[in-house]
Write a structure and sequence with these properties.
single chain; mainly beta; Beta-galactosidase, Chain A, domain 5; 8-stranded antiparallel beta sheet; 2 helices; binds 6-O-phosphono-beta-D-tagatofuranose
């Protein structure tokens, strides 16, 4: 289906001339970049923007966009054997193809993008694959990444839907849903630590919560809202905020912007990485809703 068949969606030339899709229906508005296959904005009806995008983000081919929901695939973090390869894989650096857009009976819009191997991806990772990214834009935002092994060798992958949420003021925010779970603290030499109670966003955080399949809630008193973050096909959750010092070393994040963001990421990382047999597929999904 082409965009003209779906009146709720308009293609446009976004920041930096990157191809984007504007979605507007009775339930919500969204902005999706084909570059990266990345949702950049989601505003449910009657609400404020839910996602964070840095004012200093690059909007340039070859550079990731800082914010929204980047797709990290086929590896999360630095490449295990070659640190010269792109951080968090290449999916967020490629232009995805729009394959379908429909209005669902609920009134939400479903947009489907696809990415398959190309000379560019094969130079970084010599494997055929098919990624389908299905985004449902409505009173909830659901993003589902289906990864399929279209080759003849097993594919070892790690991945994340690296969601950036917009906050009133991080230091006043707390996250529930992780109580009593162990996390790997990447800021403490991967120390395994038990989360006790709610997680306060008042310092640098870079943690991999283990065996976490349930939902998290972001409690934001300044914006007077809670954001529910659900997921499927994932038993690892990364929570990240670079805080002040690390932010200073990041060219694409303003010095104060860490106060207005937190990442809660539906992941398949570390022990939760997925190896796909030939023809096998796996879906990693995340879903958000605003609650008052
Ligand atoms: O998800 C947390 C993390 O892996 C951090 O270690 C941090 O560096 C972040 O992602 C952002 O990575 P990026 O490559 O987008 O700068």
């Amino acid at each position: 289906m082409t965009s003209s068949e779906h009146p709720a969606m308009q293609p446009l030339s976004g920041k930096g001339g990157l191809p984007m899709l504007e979605v507007a229906n009775e339930q919500a508005k969204a902005l999706i970049s084909l570059y990266g296959g990345q949702v950049l904005s989601w505003v449910p009806r009657g609400e404020e923007e839910v996602l964070f995008v840095s004012e200093r983000s690059h909007f340039t081919a070859g550079q990731p966009i800082r914010g929204g929901v980047p797709v990290c695939w086929p590896w999360f973090g630095p490449h295990a054997a070659d640190p010269g390869k792109p951080m968090h894989g290449f999916a967020r650096l490629m232009t995805w193809q729009l394959t379908s857009s429909v209005t669902l009976p609920s009134g939400a819009s479903r947009i489907e993008l696809m990415l398959t191997e190309s000379p560019e991806t094969l130079a970084l990772w010599p494997h055929p694959f098919r990624l389908v990214l299905r985004m449902e834009v409505g009173s909830h935002l659901r993003i589902a990444l289906t990864m399929e092994n279209t080759g003849e060798e097993p594919l070892a992958t790690t991945s994340a839907l690296h969601s950036y949420f917009r906050l009133g003021e991080a230091a006043h925010v707390h996250i529930t849903g992780l109580d009593d779970t162990f996390y790997i603290d990447t800021l403490q030499q991967d120390l395994h630590t038990l989360q006790r109670g709610k997680l306060q966003v008042n310092q640098e955080i870079n943690r991999i919560y283990l065996d976490t399949a349930g939902l998290c809630m972001i409690h934001d008193p300044l914006l007077e809202r809670q954001i529910m973050v659900k997921k499927e096909g994932s038993r690892s959750t990364v929570v990240w905020n670079p805080w002040s010092e690390r932010s200073r070393s990041m060219a694409d994040l303003g010095p104060e912007e860490y106060q207005h963001m937190v990442c809660i990421e539906a992941c398949n990382v570390r022990h939760d990485g997925r190896t796909l047999a030939p023809s096998a597929s796996h879906t990693l999904a995340t879903e958000f809703a605003v609650i008052h």
